[in-house]
Amino acid sequence: MIERVKEYFKQWNMEGNIREFPVSSATVELAAKALGCEPCRIAKTLSFRAGERVILIVAAGDARIDNQKI
């Protein structure tokens, strides 16, 4: 999958914008640790389905999202 992303970025001369880590960055806490920063500096994305629509939320890593309010 990462190769497809790299190819897509390459067409826009942005392939250098992809960062890979030797450790997992699957959670905000792990990503912050890998980058050596605070969790609030990580942007996390959450996606929700609302009927036929999809909602994408980008929030600070330390933000709490109330799924019921979405």
Automatic annotation (TrEMBL):
<feature type="domain" description="YbaK/aminoacyl-tRNA synthetase-associated">
    <location>
        <begin position="26"/>
        <end position="70"/>
    </location>
</feature>
<dbReference type="InterPro" id="IPR036754">
    <property type="entry name" value="YbaK/aa-tRNA-synt-asso_dom_sf"/>
</dbReference>
<dbReference type="InterPro" id="IPR007214">
    <property type="entry name" value="YbaK/aa-tRNA-synth-assoc-dom"/>
</dbReference>
<protein>
    <recommendedName>
        <fullName>YbaK/aminoacyl-tRNA synthetase-associated domain-containing protein</fullName>
    </recommendedName>
</protein>
<dbReference type="Pfam" id="PF04073">
    <property type="entry name" value="tRNA_edit"/>
</dbReference>
<dbReference type="GO" id="GO:0002161">
    <property type="term" value="F:aminoacyl-tRNA deacylase activity"/>
</dbReference>
